[in-house]
Amino acid sequence: WLPIKPHKRLPDFNLLKDSLLVKNRKGNYELRLIFDIPVRRIIPQNILAIDLGERTIATVCDSLGKGAFLGKDIRGMRRHYAWLRKMLGRKKLLKKIKAIGQKEKRKVTNRLHEISNEIVLWAERTKAIIVLGDLKGIRKSAKGRVMRRLLSAVPFYKLTHMISYKAEQHGLQVFRIDESYTSKQCHKCNCLGTRDKQASFSCANCGMQYNADLNGARNILNRAREQGILAGAMAHAQKIALTERLR
User: Fold this and answer.
1) What is the Cα–Cα distance from 154 to 108, expressed in whole angstroms?
2) What pLDDT sits at residue 105?
3) Cα separation of 159 and 197, whole Å?
4) Of 12, 80, 123, 214, which is most buried, counting CB atoms within 10 Å of its CB?
5) What is the number of alpha carbons within 13 Å of residue 175 lying toward its C-beta?
6) From residue 217, how far is each of 133, 172, 186 by CA, in Å?
7) What is the pLDDT of residues 77-119, one digit of tens each?
């Protein structure tokens, strides 16, 4: 028995398979417990689409018509700490710069955990697959030095990694699809439109005016429908469930 309070409730110890006592980089000891927990596969019925962006890190919409903007505050956090580093750099306070860098990392990571938890619980509640825009090569394709610098600081990979492994733990499936032109294409008529501002999209063909990030998320949702991803995910989940019952 140890007088400790873990960060989350421990599973049934009948599922405990292994344990490991290790010394971390700070010189403290960590007790790592490894559990073999059966995951209940969810048969999906809906789609949850996510558009990742620099201003709002995750714009989410589902096939039930609901949408949300998650992580707008991360951009403000990063700009605040960038300003602090600039001020401290002028005073050559290198130790202070290193210290606030670690603090920024902890705060951003904690916020990413909150966002990924909200997304996974949303998908679990609505029995949805999670579809992410594939951002491979986005930093290289960005126009302008300033935009490339901004995108390089956005923790896209960390967020998508969190969503993926948490979804797996909840029996949910995650897919990535090509998001080329999702920010420029109208989700209603599929014609190319214009972004009047960074957060505003307008279509000259059908006259629609819409939030640009939400328009991108709805385009990802439409592409997932066109590609029949939901049907494939349903078949896969049913096959896994049947195999587990036969065991």
Assistant:
1) 10
2) 85
3) 26
4) 123
5) 25
6) 8, 19, 11
7) 888 878 887 888 877 777 777 777 788 888 899 999 999 999 9
Q: Are strands 128-134 and 174-178 parallel, antiparallel or unpaired?
A: parallel
Alpha-carbon dihedral angle through residues 89, 90, 95, 99, given to the nearest 10 degrees: -50
Where do we find the tokens 């050559």? Answer: 92
- pLDDT tens digits along 45-72: 999 999 998 888 999 999 999 999 999 8
Distance (Å, whole) CA 82 – CA 153: 10
150 pLDDT higher than 70: no
pTM surpassing 0.85?
Answer: no
Residue 200 backbone phi and psi in degrees, to 5: -125, 130
Q: How many CA atoms lie within 13 A of 7 on its CB side?
A: 5
Q: What is the pLDDT of residues 220-229, one digit of tens each?
A: 999 999 999 9
Cβ-proximal residues to 167 (8 Å cutoff; 6+ apart), any chain: 120, 123, 130, 173, 174
